[in-house]
Amino acid sequence: MDKRALRREIGAKKRALTPEEVGRRSAILAERLFETPQYRACRSLYAYLSFNQEVRTNPIIARAWADGKRVAVPKVMGREMAFIWIDSFDGLAPQGAYSIPEPVADGPVADDATALVLMPGLAFDPEGHRVGYGGGYYDRFLAAEPGHPLVALCYDFQMLDHLEVEDHDIPVDIIITDS
Q1: 3-state secondary structure of 23
Q2: What percent of the chain has pLDDT over 70?
Q3: What pLDDT does residue 136 have?
Q4: Angle 140-146-152 (CA atoms, 0-180°, nearest 5)?
Q5: Beta-carbon neighbour count of residue 110 at 10 Å?
Q6: Total domains present in the chain
Q7: Residues 105-134: tens digit of each pLDDT
Q8: What is the CATH number of the domain that holds 13?
Q9: What is the model's pTM?
Q10: Lesser CB count within 10 Å: N end or C end of the chain?
């Protein structure tokens, strides 16, 4: 299946989730993340701000702050993406680039080369390959800043047996599902 068809298919399955299902599944995924050695060891978390039916990250961000971790979230700046440090949910635009919440400010730019990165995506496979939303922002960011531990949180229907990958695609280290 080509990426466009895959994006339509997985997108339809996500849109079929009720808000209650998204909340329940997100809570399961968050607890599984908190149990990983990667989360426990990290000093900083680079987390996406969820939109639509994505796994809810605000509770994860709040827990990271409670656990004494620094948190940064992405901001699109032209064709590039930077992670911006935040210490509260104040100062976030509810609809930034692509209607995704993002910081209003352009800084301070996050600078932890060992930060744990939560990777959004539409589909994943057991080898850590992912199909994102098509902008390539995470692949460009990770090509410029390699070495971050990468974790994806996904609903069970987002896991596929195999995905076609391109040379620039960067696989995640760990995939956590809700099943």
Answers
A1: helix
A2: 99
A3: 86
A4: 75
A5: 21
A6: 1
A7: 999 999 999 999 999 999 999 999 998 887
A8: 3.40.50.10420
A9: 0.94
A10: C
